């Protein structure tokens, strides 16, 4: 399905990709193969982000943060979004920001299509569509497209 808008809700274990137009909604769930636990977060990797420690390269340590399986997960999400013109990314924690950073590094077309990254809890797919429609209506008006 080729659509103009999409919303992606993600955490470290799963992503809900919802593409829609005025008449159609299509959703897909993408599971992560990562073994991250919610309590792991970025433990042990914060120092690496500042040029110190084993993870100074920007990839986080084994104790937390993203690793190659996260990159595969984020790439799978980006692949599901190919052809979408405007994307809203949302979720409860750091995964949404890590996905945006992944796209900036590896999936430039998707990065360009991401119009915003916002925090949210765990909405249903119907709530995601309602959130996205409200957001894009406002966004399109501000861009002079509505």
Explain the overall architecture.
The chain has 146 residues and is α/β, with parallel strands linked by helices. Helices cover 34% and strands 22% of the residues. It is built from four helices and five strands; from the N terminus they run E-E-E-H-E-H-H-E-H. The protein has a five-stranded mixed beta sheet, with helices on both faces. A hairpin with a 3-residue loop joins strand 1 and strand 2 (14-20). Helix 1 (68-80) packs across helix 2. The model is unreliable at 38-64 (pLDDT under 50).
The largest sheet is:
5 strands, mixed
Shape: globular
Cα(first) to Cα(last) distance is: 22 Å
Q: What is the number of helices?
A: 4
Helix-strand pattern: EEEHEHHEH
Which strand order do you get reading across the main beta sheet? 3-2-1-4-5
Radius of gyration: 16 Å
State the gist of this model.
By secondary structure, the protein is α/β, with parallel strands linked by helices. It has helices at 68-80, 95-106, 108-113, 125-142, and strands at 5-10, 14-20, 25-31, 86-91, 114-119.
Topology:
Layout: E1 5-10, E2 14-20, E3 25-31, H1 68-80, E4 86-91, H2 95-106, H3 108-113, E5 114-119, H4 125-142
Parallel strand pairs: 1-4, 4-5
Antiparallel strand pairs: 1-2, 2-3
Attribute tags:
globular, 4 helices, five-stranded mixed beta sheet, 146 residues
